[in-house]
Specification:
- The structure is a homotetramer of 410-residue chains.
- The first copy, chain A, is α+β, with helices and mostly antiparallel strands and 410 residues long.
- Chain A has 6 helices and 23 strands.
- In chain A, helix 5 (325-341) packs across helix 6.
- The radius of gyration of chain A is 21 Å and the shape is globular.
- In chain A, a hairpin with a 2-residue loop joins strand 12 and strand 13.
- In chain A, strands 2, 3, 5, 11, 12, 13 and 15 form a 7-stranded mixed beta sheet that branches.
- Chains in contact: A-B, A-C, A-D, B-C, B-D, C-D.
- Chains A and B meet through helix 2, strand 12, strand 17, helix 4 and strand 18 of A and helix 2, strand 14, strand 19, helix 4 and strand 20 of B.
- Strand 21 (299-301) of chain B pairs antiparallel with strand 19 (299-301) of chain D.
- Chains A, B, C, D: InterPro entries: FmdA_AmdA, FormamaseFmdA.
- Chains A, B, C, D: Its EC number is 3.5.1.49.
- Chains A, B, C, D: It comes from Actibacterium naphthalenivorans.
- Chains A, B, C, D: Keywords: Hydrolase.
Chain lengths: 410, 410, 410, 410
Amino acid sequence: MADTLISVDLSESPLTNENIHNRWHPDIPIGVWVDPGDEFKIETYDWTGGQIADNDDAADVRDVELEQVHYLSGPIGVTGAEPGDLLVVEILDIGAKEESQWGFNGFFSKQNGGGFLTEHFPQAQKSIWDFHGMFTTSRHVPGVKYAGLIHPGLIGCLPDQKMLDMWNTREKALFDTDPDRIPALATLPDGGPTAHMGRLKGEARDKAAAEGARTVPPREHGGNCDIKDLSRGSKVYFPVYVEGAGLSMGDLHFSQGDGEITFCGAIEMAGWLHLKVELIKDGMAKYGVKNPIFKPSPITPKYDDFLIFEGISVDEAGTQHYLDVHIAYRQACLNAIEYLKKFGYSGAQAYAILGTAPVQGHISGVVDIPNACATLWLPTDIFEWDMMPNADGPVKFLDGSIDVPLAPDL
Amino acid sequence: MADTLISVDLSESPLTNENIHNRWHPDIPIGVWVDPGDEFKIETYDWTGGQIADNDDAADVRDVELEQVHYLSGPIGVTGAEPGDLLVVEILDIGAKEESQWGFNGFFSKQNGGGFLTEHFPQAQKSIWDFHGMFTTSRHVPGVKYAGLIHPGLIGCLPDQKMLDMWNTREKALFDTDPDRIPALATLPDGGPTAHMGRLKGEARDKAAAEGARTVPPREHGGNCDIKDLSRGSKVYFPVYVEGAGLSMGDLHFSQGDGEITFCGAIEMAGWLHLKVELIKDGMAKYGVKNPIFKPSPITPKYDDFLIFEGISVDEAGTQHYLDVHIAYRQACLNAIEYLKKFGYSGAQAYAILGTAPVQGHISGVVDIPNACATLWLPTDIFEWDMMPNADGPVKFLDGSIDVPLAPDL
Amino acid sequence: MADTLISVDLSESPLTNENIHNRWHPDIPIGVWVDPGDEFKIETYDWTGGQIADNDDAADVRDVELEQVHYLSGPIGVTGAEPGDLLVVEILDIGAKEESQWGFNGFFSKQNGGGFLTEHFPQAQKSIWDFHGMFTTSRHVPGVKYAGLIHPGLIGCLPDQKMLDMWNTREKALFDTDPDRIPALATLPDGGPTAHMGRLKGEARDKAAAEGARTVPPREHGGNCDIKDLSRGSKVYFPVYVEGAGLSMGDLHFSQGDGEITFCGAIEMAGWLHLKVELIKDGMAKYGVKNPIFKPSPITPKYDDFLIFEGISVDEAGTQHYLDVHIAYRQACLNAIEYLKKFGYSGAQAYAILGTAPVQGHISGVVDIPNACATLWLPTDIFEWDMMPNADGPVKFLDGSIDVPLAPDL
Amino acid sequence: MADTLISVDLSESPLTNENIHNRWHPDIPIGVWVDPGDEFKIETYDWTGGQIADNDDAADVRDVELEQVHYLSGPIGVTGAEPGDLLVVEILDIGAKEESQWGFNGFFSKQNGGGFLTEHFPQAQKSIWDFHGMFTTSRHVPGVKYAGLIHPGLIGCLPDQKMLDMWNTREKALFDTDPDRIPALATLPDGGPTAHMGRLKGEARDKAAAEGARTVPPREHGGNCDIKDLSRGSKVYFPVYVEGAGLSMGDLHFSQGDGEITFCGAIEMAGWLHLKVELIKDGMAKYGVKNPIFKPSPITPKYDDFLIFEGISVDEAGTQHYLDVHIAYRQACLNAIEYLKKFGYSGAQAYAILGTAPVQGHISGVVDIPNACATLWLPTDIFEWDMMPNADGPVKFLDGSIDVPLAPDL
């Protein structure tokens, strides 16, 4: 039996837990140590640290304090790990906490970060997803049921000071190109009271908090990649930058679509991971690795019948963009939403499905100037009903009486 | 037995074939007609119309005349098809022409269109791929062998005048933002001598040629989507804009990776398609369809063991970009190339593999500001050797004596 | 959260637990009730009720008391279920008990039941398998690792008296054709002291024990089918014979190959199931169902690269049998064992792999007189090493220093 | 381009073609030779040599001359092949002959060989299947459509005299246990006029014909295995018994279910194969190979949603048999047929589906005395309609106006 090295109590604030942190900094002390070859478990909060409740009111999503995120469990030290090594992490299993068999999906208000389709869904909305063993359903989105492709949205090792400085420099440069933009172009170190630097205290804490990188973006070390396929059963090779590696993780998702388009985003949950670690000495140079690489799991849900939607890089106003995959994928998503509405779903329900179900987003063509072509792969087996086109036209399966709760702020 | 409605003779110029065209225009006459429910075959040239030869000299790729492309077979009329319908096309089979059991992959010179990694591979290079039944190998890229995921890179219906005008307007607007750029931001109608308007002749031909859209980008009708999964066995629902639909296609690929990153691009070949057509009357409105949608084939190669590479939207110079999936995917591709080089491949060979093998490109995260995260899924079963990382480090399987031919022009 | 309706304490004898039984009889009282639509959990012993220990001595497998098996949890009543209905059981999840993260595989002595290859492996042997999250490995069988395809070996509803009588009559008739055979042709009701009739006591218990069918074979109600694909995530339609249905189950397997050829047999474990039940009223007649039918899980391990071995119905002595699939499959298994021995496995290790890994056994041809043809599909991804044939011949990966413990009795 | 080494003319009798034979004997001369590493094509008749026509009359199936079968193309010599080697055959592609885009499935009369369910379907019946590129449909079995899993039902190398003698001895011994049985227990050498010994003539022909083994059963060399997964794209390792190997094949199937239960049996067709051969010297001993082994194709139809039917070894009369997989599979098939009849199919249509569609037959349990458990996996995606059970009961999609033609002889 694997020991639980980091525990979390969902009834207490993550700010009181010394094995939690929410910024990246090399000075965050490693609190627990393991050896190569060890198996162990750790627990995690949901990414917001418990700000969102299992109810039908989206006010908590509207009012979420994003400066708190993401609450990570770690850093975990691996004896013998040195800069330049690859830390091999086998994710042997992941689950929701026994007392918390539910998750949430939200659209943030455009005032508070928004999401991929924030121009179309500018207000805060929330759907709750109940877990039934390996499956999930939502009382706010009838007619769909999925097996979970459970994964940590965020996982990686501590940066060293040089890498941290590089992150801060380049992100500040981008931010400065439009500092008043809402939402902002980047989230910068803020040193504020909610910067949780683990067991670092006093001046050392304040210095680290002032320069600690936010956990929002994915970076060289992995971090907030939100890759749905980095799931239970996968084997990941992480770059190591500091002695002991300092592995941290959190932001567990029960299920998510490629792109995590709703931003909040996946079906977010608190839970636990069962891990095993090994080292490849000097692996970064040996294999030319800059960002993590991974072998996906042998055990994932089989949703392999699809209806596929195309999108090109012409935006909603008809303006032509140059090979812009971001816009092309947005069009593919909007096309899928329009399609689903014909069967009775509200736009918000369709958006929630694309964010939470194991949809695939493929970069199909990126060279045929001036249009990128992206495809959104909608798995058809997640629906209770037959959603394929036919000569008779679509059947409205839903009457609109149920929708995703909305909390206005505009 | 299905009749062959359009034949091509690879020993003759496509310009002499009345059932071929290389521009999009509603006035291009429909030459062959079928009824809903019909099965039929058509033949196609490779997209360049035979400009590239099966040899070890990349000069033809360097000197290719891109104003000629793409040579399409069609338009095919479907009786009863009206604007607003969906044309349902079942791709019952596709193959290479019996006398032409090979294909090519090329990198265009940066002077002549370039490709996804043109800054890294600025000169013309060419690899030749031989077909062995369902499989392909290349004398220029040892150690890999794939079953073909054969598909038309380009397929769609004729636009009406209104849609054509919209295309031309928006692409011209983009082009005009940087008219001297090389490569250009968009390819505009040119009315030149190589504009092949099918059986349209004289003044009517000249007028149509002058405003006929180039076939390069994917657009609302589908067109040059280069979606590898729109393969033999798939069922596609195309928007119809003109009476009779006017379905055309070409640019057959024996195999391709997501993104078709080498631009020329896939394993390009001449061949034939076996098709069946049906109609969904008024289907565009019924299903809210703007771009084509499709159901992929039940019969595709099983390459489902992967090594996955991550990329983020920080470019090669270290500059931070905002949620730019194009850059993120480029980084993932470059990471994969660096990895493959450790096993002895040249950069050009690795690039050719990413362009021709059934790699997947996923839009993994598009909301975690400021970094998009894209993943490149490299199928491991295409390699003769074990390419997974291990504690011993990579083995050099290749000694560099073989490479992809290059024809300099810089 | 689903409630646990039946608990088991692994430190206590199953004979003391009123929600356990080990014979089939309509008089066994239903102890717990649920409604259609309910979700709930139940716990189970391993099939032997704890007779086998996690150690390196096969004496417990040699000396196992088979008259005790199988210990089942139930019967569970479903309100409204009537004879002729179909009971729809969704297996939402299954797991090992937290305190018991291991399982066992054994070959019974030929004196005590034997197994599929008992002539080749006549003595008792035992391998222990440790669970690592979703995966398992054995200290007795190096070089293999599998994700679990976890399933109940035994599940079904109580028979009514008429069906019970039919079972007893036909099995007695077979037994009587060779009553002295070892192993016996069938296990008949024995009424002995280890017949556990749940909460039935006194005379009623004795009467039921005397005629209660043994749990060994699969029958019309399902029962001991040992179908590896009836796993977590599957949806099963069971015939109902008595008021309330009376669903019971046990004999959990972490992993098993088609045929469960080692008899003891799979990786046997104690654990829990999370279930949901529904009814199809009069479903047996509506759908013509005699034996259970099921839809397999959307989430199963992906072991889809195989090396396939053929076998025909000529036995080890060279005698020709008529379309005998049993013999053909035995030959395919023996062929696979010979193959694995070339890589250094002992015969017992190879046999244990075929019994525990998700191998497939296909009935490939049953009409080409006089030979049946069966195929054994060995998944290659379960091995640490490359097990495919090549021109150089096999590499011996194992030196024979480790083997499966044996406890002699012959 | 691969050369066609053996051609067949479907308008001429196979008895006139010197590269065809229908018995196994070491003296059959090798007519064409290839080298290791060579690619080549060969053509084949359908297994009956053209006795069955594309019409709606089953008389030809009723009156088929089975002493003629199977017409094989070969033997093909491989230079350097010696007894004890493994001949590695890559099946690079298979197809129907261009002029013969159809196949047949038949039930033989019980007077003439019968089939797996001959007691239930004792009379001759025939269904015709039209090919539509990669797909097939039948005018006699509405509502189903499958992509072809095309394979040679029969392929293997010539036996040496010792092996031939062993075959003849053991099969005669079985035959002699019930020499008057109809259908016979085995088909023995007959030396009759339809024994086609290739280019062997005169006395040598007569001698070989008198002892040449019939091609009906699978044997050590492979032969008539009827394994649906030994399909285009697979790689097979065949034992070699004679100098030059002497590879022959035929009996092409467009599609077939596990067991080939209708005997005639699959969708039978004439066609061609594209092959590549290699040798593993002394491979039989190196790898302990007695029967062929193979690696299945990376490109097969994806029919992976199933409804699974169980069967146990209690026969239709209620008699208990001991671990008899043959009977268990028959019960699973009969259960599936009863299920399909509820949706409107006739029994014969359902039987034809089980024989021709890519159904799987698994040996699920073979140790739980006295019942074997077999499962029949019915792919649900081959049906136009939703065939899953639900609370409302089945819908009759067919009105019985169409059925499989029958030609009485009883």
